[in-house]
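Protocol step 4 of 6: structure prediction from sequence.
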Amino acid sequence: MSDAQLEILHRLNVAFNERADWVVFYEPDVEFHMPVEWPEDPVYRGADGLYKVVQLWTENFDEYHWEERKLIEVPPDRVVGLYNQAGRIKGTDTRIDQAIGIVFRFRGVRIDRVDAFFSWEAALATPGVSSANATGCD
């Protein structure tokens, strides 16, 4: 895993939180696989799919962002991102702060597959991701 790929994930998180053009970090044929608990479609494809899933994910929030906590390299082509999603539920003062785990797979320096989980533990339990072949990065 290259430093460039880790930098891509840092930049992606900043762009997403700033509502900038974050889709440029993904391959055109990217697949975004949602957690099994997700009530909508299980997989979203391409830029249109990315925009749709983010709209569905965030539509119930007035404020929403991801806090990057840790990136874990999984050679040869994956990184596990441990994040907290934080925000305020639309029309209320109710705030959320929830762990989110993401397994990113790269093709070069662009992301070509994402597997999302509603916990860090689930992301770390993904087949092929283990403490034997994962190294932490900050």
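Step 5 (inspection) to follow. Helices lie at 3-17, 46-58, 120-124.
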